[in-house]
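Action item from last meeting closed. Structure (357 res):
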């Protein structure tokens, strides 16, 4: 660890560190130092050091050499300053105590702006403008969450149970059970995706859907997102019944896996339409969730991993086929035949799988 500068050759600013996650999906949020809460910025003739706050990670990364600082940002509203390094992409977001402090700190920081940073800013600006035109809202995701929560409450009054469940109630409301599903009640392949075994099951699936669904819906558009969601839900339950037709299953996890698969498929096919830092951070988070959930399912017999895999495969495939350029002009033409072709292809494939039980 380096020796802190003495008060004689330094200036100290009280600050509050910005959060590490963006407030909006389209917003780059520069704070990857593991800092939060209140702290101090110590500026000397050679370095800037960030101290205090709630910290995690490597403390040595919180000292920036002045010669390595570039692309400093300033938002006059709220006296916000973003301090960045140009070589190892460290960033920290600062709320200054006053406008005087903000101006004083800016005067002490380098004024260098790199071409790479300007290109990154251009990409973010274009992405935000396109997002505002193409998909200012994501109404389907909260609607699906609302349906799941409403049905859960209805089933609670029917005796399904808040934590300890009554499987008979779930069966009555449309859970997936092979002897019923494959003998004239195929509608259970969809209804089961809106039924949950207890509040913990519901909460985990709805949180995952909320976290990834709004991103995916805005990238694909609400109609295509709804199609991907329903196809993934259907696929998860078909594969589950094909794998074990004696098991009672329910839940939105197959559909949620499909949503995350579609998100990664969009990034893979339209990577030039997404700012690189957003692509990396969101893509890494989605991939981590999928790997972790599949690993947990592999060691926990209670988890229906076959439904997860089925939803993931169909969500990824249909998402890849339905991904369009993220440009207003490309979205002006609806191309319903493309959606119909994907729906038909997936349904035919699932029909063959169901017949091969």
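Sequence:
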């Amino acid at each position: 660890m380096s020796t802190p500068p003495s008060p004689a050759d330094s200036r100290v600013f009280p600050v509050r560190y910005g959060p590490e996650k963006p407030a909006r999906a389209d917003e780059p949020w520069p704070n990857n130092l593991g800092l939060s809460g209140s702290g101090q910025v110590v500026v000397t003739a050679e370095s800037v050091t960030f101290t205090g706050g709630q910290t995690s990670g490597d403390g040595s990364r919180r000292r920036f050499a002045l010669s390595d600082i570039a692309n400093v940002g300033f938002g006059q509203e709220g006296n916000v300053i973003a301090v960045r390094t140009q070589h190892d992409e460290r960033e920290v977001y600062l709320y200054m105590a006053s406008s005087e402090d903000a101006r004083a700190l800016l005067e002490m920081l380098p004024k260098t702006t790199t071409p790479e940073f300007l290109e990154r800013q251009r990409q973010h600006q274009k992405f935000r403008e396109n997002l505002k035109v193409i998909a200012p809202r994501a109404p389907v995701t909260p609607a699906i969450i609302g349906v799941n929560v409403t049905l859960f409450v209805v089933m609670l009054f029917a005796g399904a149970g808040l934590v300890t469940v009554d499987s008979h109630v779930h069966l009555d409301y449309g859970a997936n059970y092979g002897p019923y599903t494959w003998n004239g009640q195929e509608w259970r392949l969809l209804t089961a995706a809106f039924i949950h075994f207890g509040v913990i099951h519901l909460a985990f699936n709805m949180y995952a859907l909320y976290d990834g669904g709004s991103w995916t819906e805005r990238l694909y558009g609400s109609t295509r997102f709804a199609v991907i969601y329903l196809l993934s839900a259907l696929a998860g339950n078909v594969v589950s019944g094909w794998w074990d037709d004696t098991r009672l299953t329910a839940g939105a996890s197959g559909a949620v896996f499909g949503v995350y698969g579609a998100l990664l498929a969009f990034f893979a096919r339209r990577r030039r339409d997404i700012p690189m830092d957003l692509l990396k951070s969101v893509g890494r988070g989605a991939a981590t969730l999928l790997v972790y959930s599949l690993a947990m399912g592999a060691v926990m017999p209670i988890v229906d991993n076959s439904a997860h895999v089925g939803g993931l495969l169909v969500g990824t495939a249909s998402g890849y086929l339905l991904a369009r350029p993220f440009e207003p002009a490309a979205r002006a033409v609806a191309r319903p035949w493309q959606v119909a072709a994907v729906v038909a292809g997936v349904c035919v494939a699932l029909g063959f799988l169901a017949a091969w039980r």
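Note appended to the action item: The chain has two domains: 7-113, 133-355.
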